[in-house]
Amino acid sequence: MSYETVTLPFKTRQLSPGRHVVVSTTGDHAFLSSEQLLLLQSSPGSLPLEQLAELRARFIVASAGPANGLRRLVASRVAAKRETIRGGPALHIIVPTLQCQHSCRYCQVSRSLDDDTHTMSEKDLDTACDMIFESPSKTLTVEFQGGDPLLRYDLVHRAIVRISDLNQSMKRHIRFVVASTLHQLDEEMCRCFKDHGVFLSTSVDGPAALHNRNRPTPTRDAYARTVAGIELARRHIGPDAVSALMTTTREALVDPEAIVDEYVRLGFSDVFLRPLSLYGFAKRNQPQLAYASEAFGAFYQRGLDRVLHWNRQGVRLREVYASIILNKLLSSFDGGYVDLQSPTGAGLSVLVYNYDGFVYPSDEARMLVETGDLSLRLGRIGDSLAYLLSSPVQQDLIRASLTEFTPGCRECAYSTFCAPNPVDAQAQFGTLFAPVFLTNHCNRHMRLFDSLLSRLYEADDWTRDLFHQWAEPAA
C-alpha cells in the first residue's frame, strides 16, 4: 500500500533571490529554489524522488496514513533540544567581589580595589555553595566572576574547598571556572587549581596595543601581565588550562584578522568574536562605545574567514559564535547556549549568586543592578531553589521567552533554533516584553543564522566537515 505525500508543518526564509531555507518543527532544514518551494507548497509529490527522500529525512514531508511512530519520533527530537532547560540549573555563577584593577570603558559593573561593600560575606558565600546542590543537574559548572575574583582568592579558595567537600557525598560532576585578568595568579593558586581541576578564563581583546587601550590599568601593562598569567597557568596547571574571550570595540572593527592572528600566536584553539554588550555602566557610555549592527556583521564575517584560513593551514582554531549557531542547525543535541533557549535559560539553566546577597537569573541581569535596575532579582541567597524558580520575576522571564507566543518569533523560520532574550530586552528598553524585532539580540542572530546557512549552502566538503565538527556540543 502506498500513501500520498503530504507536507508537515514547516517555516521558510529567503536567504537570497531564488534561494530559500525550509525548517521543520524538529529543527531540521533543507535548501530549496523558488520553484522547488512552490512545488512543496502546492504539490509535494511532484518533487524528484531524491529530493523527497531528503525532505522526509528532515521531517518536512511524510506519507499520508498512520503517523503514531512519526509523532513519537518528532516529539523525541524536539525534547532532545530542550534537555538542557529541563535538567535544572547547571551553571552557577558566584560573584565574590567587584574589586578590579582595570578601568575598561566597556565594563558593565562598578569596580573598586578596597571597598568591602562590593565583596560577598563569608556567610553568603557558604550558603551559595550549599544552594548549588539543590539543582537536580548531575553536571554542575561553578564559575567565579567579578570584578576580578583573584583579588579575593581567599573567598574563591574557600568556595572551591567547600563545594569539593560537599560533593564527596553529593557525587555530582563538578567543573570549576575562574574568570580573571590573571594579573594576581601565582604558583600557590595554580597548585590549588590543578588539584581541584579548575579552568581559567581570561580576556584577550587582540594585539597588545588594542588590548591595552580597551583594558587600561594604572601601570599600562595589562596585555603583558595577562599573557604572563596565561603562560604561568599553562606551565603549572596544563596546556589547556586557560581559555580567552574578546570584546569587539569600535577600534577592533578595523582589523579582525589581527585579532584572530593574535589568538593563533598565543596558542588558543578557540576564539569568540563577541559583540559589545551595553549593560550596566557600559550603557552610560553608549555614545562613545556603540556601533551599528551592520559594522559588527562585516567584522564578524572577515574574522570568520580568517579562522577558516588558519584551519586550512592546518591550525586547529574554532570560532565559538559560529559553533553555537552550527550546533543549533546541525546537531540533534543542543549545547545549551543560554541566550537562545525557549523557555529562557536565564534562571532555568543559570543562577548567579551576587556579592550583594541576592540571586539573579544571569550574569547580565546582575549587571543591571549596578545602574539601579533591581527588577530581575529572583530572591536572596538562602532562599530555596523552588522559591527562586517560582518567583514572579522568573515566571515573567519564562513568559517573555516563549517563541510560540511572541509576535515576530512564532512566524520566524529560526524559532526552533533561537528565542527572545528578555534580559537583553530589559537592558535595551526597560521591559522584558519589548517587541522582539526591535532588539539588538534579534537583529544580530537573524544575521548570524542567515550567514551560517548561506555558508552551509555554498560549502565545499572540507568546510562542511569542519562545520559539523564545530557543531558537536562541548564535552
Number of domains: 2
Could you name the CATH class of the largest domain? Alpha Beta
Q: Can you give the helix content as a percent range? A: 40-55%
Record field, number of beta strands: 16
- Which shape, going by the Cα principal axes? globular
**Going across the major beta sheet, what is the strand order?**
12-10-9-8-7-6-14-15-16
CATH superfamily of the largest domain, by name, is Aldolase class I
| Mean pLDDT figure | 92
Could you tell me the strand content as a percent range? 5-15%
- The end-to-end distance, rounded to whole angstroms, is 45 Å
Count of runs of 4 or more consecutive helical residues: 20
CATH architecture of the largest domain: Alpha-Beta Barrel
In terms of structural class, how would the helical and strand content be classed?
alpha/beta
Major sheet attributes: 9 strands, mixed
Work out the radius of gyration. 23 Å
CATH fold title of the largest domain: TIM Barrel
Uncertain stretches of 5 or more adjacent residues: none
Structure description:
By secondary structure, the protein is an alpha/beta fold. The chain folds into two domains: 5-80, no CATH class; 87-379, Aldolase class I (TIM Barrel). Helices cover 43% and strands 14% of the residues. It is built from 20 helices and 16 strands. The strands form four sheets. It has a nine-stranded mixed β-sheet with strand order 12-10-9-8-7-6-14-15-16. Strands 2-3-4 form a three-stranded antiparallel β-sheet. It has a two-stranded antiparallel ribbon with strand order 1-5. The chain is globular and about 70 Å long.
